[in-house]
Specification:
- Helix content is 32%, strand content 20%.
- It contains ten helices and 13 strands.
- The strands form two sheets. The chain has a seven-stranded mixed sheet with strand order 8-9-7-10-13-12-11. The chain has a six-stranded parallel sheet with strand order 2-1-3-4-6-5, sandwiched between helices.
- Helix 1 crosses helix 10, helix 4 crosses helix 10 and helix 5 packs parallel to helix 7.
- 44% of the residues are buried.
């Protein structure tokens, strides 16, 4: 029997990508809403309740509205917005973090897909706080670079316009007030006591992302080097198909550059540790539309359905 799936917000970047990934699957029946009714609450409720699984690819307020429309029904909601990532009763959709996270996804009815920047940050920091390596009161900072596809349809149109302003041809730092919407989950999920300092940059390429966390080695709870942390991550993420840990002599890192678009189109995430014995830089490289959005949402669905975790994804 096919799983009935409704994508609420199928016209956005994430919704379109999820829809594309389902086109070659014969185990999914996509429920289609009439275009003129896609913002009608009653019609959306009808589609949600007719589905086995509904993906929410919506702005936060609309996602909250759709979750409310589902009520207490058994339909599974997988929300790609920011709305429910730190809410009680919602599983955080990053199954590689721990057996508990995986079980919560597998058994849950309400799943919140991590934010793209948060995915990179948490993949690096959570194992260190969980293992007692990074003190939870450490003043963590992070910088990141992303392609413009994660910024929504209006921004995509601006970048792809023939008469765009010249500043769009360079990297642009933003979230200057330190109020980026991913900060809440970055702090809560990792258990940090301080909100991280976070400086993201949007750049002139379509998709792909690099998130880095610099650390002073002497402020860690035990002596660590880039090499020892790579060994730690390799053991922590052992047997996790979506997480790849670089070798100490990785060609990309050894070459001195880690490209923002280097893993565009891939649904996994790769971890690097570079620097020296005094100052270490941890880096996660992935596709903001893959492990950072639609790929993660489908991975969660696959876990719930009990099928191959990578079904329909590119690993």
């Amino acid at each position: 029997m096919k799983t009935k799936v409704f994508i609420d917000g199928s016209e956005g970047t994430t919704g379109l990508r999820i829809n594309e990934r389902f086109q070659k699957r014969d185990d999914i029946e996509l429920l289609q809403i009439s275009p003129e009714l896609r913002k009608d609450p009653e019609e959306r409720k009808k589609m949600i309740l007719a589905s086995d699984i509904t993906f929410l690819c919506l702005p936060d307020e609309a996602a909250r509205e759709s979750a409310a429309l589902a009520g207490q029904e058994d339909v599974i909601i997988i929300d790609a917005s920011t709305a429910h990532r730190t809410e009680e009763g919602w599983a955080y959709g990053f199954p590689e973090l721990s057996d508990g996270h995986r079980a919560a996804v597998r058994e849950g009815k309400r799943i919140a897909v991590p934010g793209c920047y948060a995915t990179g940050f948490i993949s690096l920091v959570y194992p260190l706080t969980a293992g007692g390596i990074l003190p939870k009161d450490y003043p963590v900072s992070s910088f990141a670079i992303s392609g413009y596809s994660g910024a929504g349809r209006k921004v995509i149109a601006a970048y792809e316009s023939g008469d765009r302003p010249k500043e769009l041809s360079s990297g642009r730092e933003y979230a200057l007030t330190q109020q980026h919407k991913h900060l809440k989950e970055m702090k809560k999920i990792t258990g940090l006591e301080r909100t991280p300092l976070f400086s993201p940059i949007i750049d002139d390429y379509y998709s792909g992302m690099v998130v880095s966390v610099p650390l002073y080695a002497d402020l860690l709870a035990r002596k660590e080097t880039p090499e020892s942390l790579l060994r730690y991550y390799a053991e922590y993420y052992k047997n996790q198909r979506f997480i790849q840990v670089s070798a100490a002599d990785d060609e990309t890192a050894a070459g001195g550059f880690i490209a923002g678009n280097g893993l565009s189109g891939w649904d996994g995430l790769k971890i690097y540790a570079t620097g020296n014995e005094e100052r270490i830089v941890l880096t996660a490289q992935f596709d903001n539309l893959g492990k950072g959005a639609s790929g993660a949402a489908i991975q969660c669905m696959n876990i719930i359905l009990g099928c191959d975790e990578a079904e329909g994804l590119d690993l």
